[in-house]
Amino acid sequence: SFMERLNATTVFEGKKCLCHNDFSCNHLLLDGNNRLTGIIDFGDSGIIDEYCDFIYLLEDSEEEIGTNFGEDILRMYGNIDIEKAKEYQDIVEEYYPIETIGYGIKNIKQEFIENGRKEIYKRTYKD
């Protein structure tokens, strides 16, 4: 089960560091030659698990470039365990609907509660 997996993982025992905490392609500024010129939106930054900034870069979605890009970035860092970063991303992806519901409750945003509920239902009843 998810809770057993969460209790068994060691990815949350790693070092903590200053992270952007919402580091995704939407926050990268590129010039006309696709060279990185800046990073924006540091509103969620804080001291957190070292793998946190790689969650979205390892995500394979329409918003992001794909997992290969994220793995290439991790290799450039050189001192990050890629497999643990991928496990971290996978666990965070699993509990994201719960986090979405929590955000909706805290901020009184019914659409977030409903979106999280729908995602849990979809994942539970795939048929």
Automatic annotation (TrEMBL):
InterPro entries: Aminoglycoside_PTrfase, Kinase-like_dom_sf. It comes from Staphylococcus aureus. Pfam families: APH. This is Aminoglycoside phosphotransferase family protein. Residues 4-88 form the Aminoglycoside phosphotransferase domain. Coiled coil: none annotated.
